[in-house]
Structure formats: C-alpha cells, structure tokens
Amino acid sequence: MTIGSLPPRYRISIDPVRCMECERCIENCSYGVFRRDGERILINSRNCTACHRCIACCPRDAISLEEQPCDYRSHPLWTREAREAIYNQARTGKIILAGMGNALDYPIIFDRLVLDACQVTSPSIDPLREPIELQTHIGKKPAKLDLRRRENGDVELLTPIAPNLRVETPIMIGHMSYGAISLNAQVAMARAAKEAGTFMGTGEGGLHSAIYPYQDRMIVQVASGRFGVNIDYLERGAAIEIKIGQGAKPGIGGHLPGEKVCEEVSRTRMIPQGSDAISPAPHHDIYSIEDLAQLVRALKEATEWKKPVFVKIAAVHNASAIAAGIARSPADAVVIDGFRGGTGAAPRVFRDHVGIPIEAAVASVDAKLRDQGIRNEISVIASGGIRGSADVAKAIALGADAVYIGTAALVAMGCRVCGNCYRGLCPWGIATQRPDLVERLNPDVASEQVANLIHAWTLELAELLGAAGINSIESLRGNRDRLRGYMLDESLMQVLDVRQVGA
Q1: Does residue 461 surpass a pLDDT of 80?
Q2: Phi, psi at residue 11, to the nearest 5°?
Q3: Given pLDDT bands bounded at 50, 70 and 90, which one contains residue 70?
Q4: Do 487 and 114 form a contact (C-beta atoms < 8 A)?
C-alpha cells in the first residue's frame, strides 16, 4: 500500500455560461492546469499554484479559484502542511524547496508597534508647505569634523570623508540575481532605481550588459560562489556588497537550478550553461572577522578606495556582535536580512524556522553599536519583510539608516507571491528564464510601477515624519521615543527598547 496522491490545495472552476473558449487560460498557465479536450476545457486543479494568471487574463471573468477545504482530520499539531510535508518526503527522500519568505504564522512585530504624532503642545509639520529632508547618506560618518580657516577666509575640511552613497529616499531595492529573476525584471528595477534616485542590488549573478546604462545605481554583490565577479564587474558598481548570509536561509549558500542557467545567464555568471550554480555555505577565505576585514580591504584596494563596501548578514541570535565586528573593519555599511526575507529557492525548513525577525535584529544591532560608541562608524540597512512605508519608518526608528525592499518590488511588477519561484515557471515573467514567459513582463510598464511604489512610500514617509514633528530622516534614526509597543511582551519590549502604549 502506498501513500497515494494528495488532495489539491486549490479548486479551479470555469463558469460555462461566461466562458467563450478563447483558450487564454491554456495559453497563460505555465503549470498545465488547463488543456483542451475536444469541445471542453479540462482542469487539473492539482497543478494550480494560485498565481492568478488565468483569472487576470480571462476576458469574461469566467474563472474562479478557492482554497480547497481541508479534508484531513482537524488537529492543532498535525496540520495539513505538516502531514503533506511528511508524505512528500516519504515519497521522494528529498529536501522540500520553497520560494519567497517565511510562511508560518509568527507574530509580525511591525504590526505591534505604533508611531507617534504631534498635537497642540508640539506642532506637526506640513510636508506640502515645509521641507522634509529624506535624503540619506549610506557609509561611514566621522565622529567629528576638524576645520581650518585659511588666510583668505575660506574654511578647509581636514577630516577625511569616506565614500558614501547618496540616496534621495531611504528605500533601496535589495539583491535579486539575474538567473533567479528574469533580465526583464532586473532591467525594470534598474530603471526604477534611477527614476527614484535610489540604488539596487545585482544579487550574486553578475551584471548583464543590459544593466550597464544603470551601473551608477547598482550595488554589485560578491558572494561565496564569486559568480560573475571580476575587476570590470567591481568597477561598474556604485558600491560593493559582500554577502555572508541571507535571511531566508542563514548558514547555507545559494542554489540556482541548472534549468535556469540559459546561455545569457551562463555568460553573465561565468559558469557552464545548464549547470547548477551552487554557492558554498561559507566564503572559503573567511573564517573570522579579521578574514572578513581583509576581503573588505582587498575590494577597496581593487577599486582604489572609491566605493563603499557593505557586508550582508542574516538576522541570527548574535547578529549584534557580528555587526560590531564588521563596524570595526573598513566596511561602510552592514545589511541585516531578517527571516521574512524572500528568496528564489531555499529549503523550507530553513526559510520557516531559522533566523530572527528583522525588527529585533536591527534594534539589538543599533543598541550594541551605540553602547560601544561606534554607531557612526557604519550605516545599518534593514531587509526582510518590508511591506509598506510604515514598516520603513518603524525600521528606521529602531535604528536602521535605510531599508532594502525585495518582494514588495516584485509584487509591484505583478508577482502574486505563490512561492514557486524555484520551479522557473513564473507565469508573470519574473522568476523564470523561459523566453516565452519572460516576454510577458514589459520592462517599461514594470519599471514605472516599481518607481511609483517607491515614490508613493516616500510621500507617505514624509507625511509620517511631519505628523511626528520631525523634519529629517536623520532625526528619526534610532528615535525610539517615536514608537510604542502594543500587545508585546515585556522581554521583547526590552530587546526593542521601546515603551508600552500609554507610557
């Protein structure tokens, strides 16, 4: 006796009255849910991932989708997900892969933090009539400035200033590599970054020539696999980021399936076509903070000390100690990626169970750096589960200088967060390399949508600052007085260093 097939997760139905049999559902579904059989369109709901492509493309609104009611015996411990994971692994003996971010029902700390607003005794600021400074500089800042007045009366700055990235908004686009996502998706986000006056990460997939026109807005990444890394690549970026860890899979490397390594991806990553791109878990030249500092210096030397170098780590229990060590190296910024950070592919057990929330990680890192008197030595970038402008404001109030967005940018381009990125069949043309699917994403339209999103969040951020009586983003950084906790336990409040509502 065998386990047998599992019940479908979703139920798809077509209204026969509304359906005109145009077959757009067949053409647009890359997962094989629909097929023609004589006079009928047959449905295989087992293949459905709830990507909504068929619904969006149906001209008569004839298609409906609903989650299949659970037909397992109800049990608080042995949920449908737990049982089906066992069934699948019992059949295959393989690690279960997943895409996007953590899918478990953990409390979202951002949603239990509320922002302050001014009234009567402390007037608010109207951003429509008064300036709100949102420009942010990412990099090392001097603790003080030494000046000297020249004989002609001019003032000369004596303090060396490290290279900084100047962003018009504290919202940047995080690292998503060519290979994990399509070239059209990367081009769209690159254009959006330029339009919004911000920066975007390349991921660990090198830099395709189509991105060269936007290279002054690129943060190039050096990961453990060193894919696509050479001196030309390093020199093209506005900044360099060393990827040590990732929020969706702390402690392990990346994996780009060979099916996604097409000719162009092969050329860009400098790997054989069709081969799996497997990044090792560690950098094999980094086994201490001192080794990391040496790599930072090497990258700075290679680029004549003209570019800031970031270090990206996953949010784990000792992230604050690691960040303090990074701050004492020549690195200019530390990126902290929380466990809700998205990914193209990760073992589900890592995505859902390893790491800590970005809110707690940023707060602890900021506190550690302040306690040691080195907060100005490095900028802090928060990443992993940023869903809106309120999350941006709260992350900055907890101690970040800026944030990375990833999944939000993909959603702006049409992503439905179906979580099947690793299969390479994305029907929206985002997480795929299949030419017919890639063509579905119009980079002109997608870039406008991502730029609009960043612009809208920036406007909302200005409104939030104004309501709190703050006229610059710098004054919000680490300003926990502008936060209060709601329905948070006392121990977590201590980690966040915020007071309870009403206090």
Answers
A1: yes
A2: -115, 120
A3: confident
A4: no
Please state which of the four CATH numbers 3.40.50.2000, 3.40.630.30, 3.20.20.70, 3.40.50.720 is assigned to the domain occupying 153-500: 3.20.20.70
Q: What percent of the chain has pLDDT over 90?
A: 85
261 with 179: CB under 8 angstroms? Answer: yes
DSSP 34: E
Query: Where does residue 39 fall: left (phi above 0), alpha (psi -120 to 50 degrees), or beta otherwise?
Result: alpha
User: One-letter amino acid identity for 251?
Assistant: G
- Asked if the model's pLDDT at residue 145 lies above 60, the reply is yes
pLDDT of 1 strictly over 60: no
The per-residue pLDDT for 144 is: 86
Residue type, 388: G
The CA distance from 199 to 401, in Å, is 14
Amino acid occupying residue 169? T
What pTM, to 2 d.p., does this model score? 0.94
Do the Cβ atoms of 254 and 225 come closer than 8 Å?
Answer: yes
Contact between residue 397 and residue 476 where contact means Cβ atoms under 8 Å apart = yes
- CATH 3.30.70.20 region(s) of the chain? 10-94
pLDDT grade, residue 122 (50/70/90)? confident
pLDDT at 85: 92
φ/ψ of residue 31, rounded to 5 = -100, 0
Q: Who's near 302: CB < 8 A, 6+ residues apart?
A: 231, 234
| Domain range 10-94, its CATH number among 3.90.226.10, 3.40.640.10, 3.30.70.20, 4.10.320.10 | 3.30.70.20
The alpha-helical segments, DSSP class H, found in 145-182 are: none
What single DSSP character describes residue 70? P
DSSP letter assigned to residue 237: S
Work out the burial of residue 444: count CB atoms within 10 Å of its CB; fewer than 13 is exposed, 13-18 middle, 19 or more buried: exposed
Q: d(Cα 385, Cα 229) in Å, to the nearest integer?
A: 28
* pLDDT per residue as tens digits for the range 220-244: 999 999 999 999 999 999 999 999 9
Collapsed DSSP state (helix, strand, coil) of residue 500: strand
Query: Exposure string (b/e) for 74-96, b if CB count within 10 Å is 16 or more?
Result: eeeeeebeeeeeeeeeeeeeeee
Q: Specify the pLDDT at position 434.
A: 95
| 22: three-class secondary structure by DSSP | coil
DSSP readout, 287-347? SSHHHHHHHHHHHHHHTTT-S-EEEEEE--TTHHHHHHHHHTTT--EEEEE-TT---SSEE
Residue matched to tokens 């990760």: 346
- Residue range(s) occupied by CATH 3.20.20.70 in the chain: 153-500
Number of neighbours of residue 114 by Cβ within 10 angstroms: 15
* Cα–Cα distance for residue pair 357/359, rounded to 1 Å: 5
